[in-house]
Amino acid sequence: MLTRDTEGRVLEALDRQAAAAIIGPRQVGKTTLALKIARSRESVYLDLEAPRDLARLQAPELFLEQHSDKLVILDEIHRAPSLFQVLRGAIDRSRRKGRRTGLFLILGSASIELLRQSGETLAGRIAYVEMTPITAGEVPAERAVQDRLWLRGGFPDSYLAASDAESLALREDFIRTYLERDVPQFGPRIPAATLRRLWTMLAHNQGQLLNASRLAAGLEVSAPTVTRYIDLLVDLLLVRRLEPLHANVGKRLVKSPKVYVRDAGLVHALLRIETLDDLSGHPVAGASWEGFAIETLIAAAPGAGFSFYRTAAGAEVDLVLDLDARRGRWLVEIKRGLAPAASRGLLHAVQDLRPRRTVVVYSGDEAYPIAADIEACGLRRLAKLLGD
Asked: In the chain, what are the domain boundaries?
């Protein structure tokens, strides 16, 4: 079984707060992680999509009182949003008795209802931990392993599939499930075919500036409608809207966000890319690897601010990480390949932003200087550095 970086953050959250919430897309490994944590302490697990478990909560106050000395794990809690108010009461009663941490572990397949409901009722009582698909920092450094992760993406079933063909079929099933089941459950009624076309268009335009009007023209809907559909995919943790850095540098800045399909394997499934050979020759390869790297680095630095920087004059950097006060601001340029170099746009961005550290991430493993105050660094190595 893979050891996920999320595990340590969840345990820390349970030591700090009465409740912890693991949020992430379906099939990312939330339940597997929760059951692993459950084996390490006295606990009770309820899957609220199972009628039998849901029936055990017919009298929720009584049930929680009977198990007040255990960690109660509630999976797919968006199925029973009325529970949030009950959880608040249970937490407050336990605090009055002197127990302040490790009462509830909540799992949700998306952030929308979970954040809305818990934000209203559990403020000050809950910590959130986002669980992403497997990242480059969580698998061995061997090139073949890293390439397999990039091709297949980080959803565990897809990554661990017996063949590339089986992996692609699993990802296609995943996409179909979201379109036919989860999107109608969480969001407005959207035609599945329309949303799939939009999702595919975003994959073709991976890492590009958002142009809602152009996407709307291709879908024959309005630009506000496209924006609303993208908002839903963002809330479902399937798409990342990377905002531009707002900096007072006296330059005219790009104001549109970049948009990425967050899992590289889903990018490739949407574009019908099955093998590494297919991917290597595809026009999306560079943008796909950029998105793969960005997700790895953001996951490695939870709590950091992240954005990109681009000016009308040509200064540009793929990822700006605003870390803690000690480490300051880091600029990260992402270059697929084995011969990284500092571009003119990056050099201008360094002059504008004066970062604490500037790194060009590339497909190799080593770290070495390539220009004054700029270093090349392998993706996995930089992820570990950020995590440390």
From this structure: 5-130, 136-387
CB contact set of 307 (below 8 Å; sequence gap of 6+): 242, 243, 244, 245, 246, 319, 320, 322
Q: What is the pLDDT of residues 90-135, one digit of tens each?
A: 999 888 888 878 799 999 876 655 666 666 788 888 999 999 999 9
Residue range 295-336, pLDDT digits in tens:
999 999 988 999 999 998 889 999 999 999 999 999 999 999
Q: What is the CATH number of domain 136-387?
A: 1.10.10.10
Environment class of 112 (CB within 10 Å of its CB; exposed 0-12, middle 13-18, buried 19+): buried
Rounded Cα distance between 174 and 269, Å, is 10
Measured from the Cβ of residue 280, the count of other Cβ atoms closer than 10 Å reads 12
Task: Answer whether 228's CB lies under 8 Å from 333's CB.
Answer: no
Contact 337, 362 (CB under 8 A): yes
CB 212 within 8 A of CB 226: yes
Q: Pick from 214, 208, 260, 271: which is nearest to 237 by CA? A: 260
Asked if residues 45 and 73 have their Cβ atoms less than 8 Å apart, the reply is yes
Confirm if 44 and 72 have CB atoms less than 8 A apart. Answer: yes
Residue range 5-130 in CATH 3.10.50.40: no
In whole angstroms, give the CA distance from residue 216 to residue 203.
Answer: 15
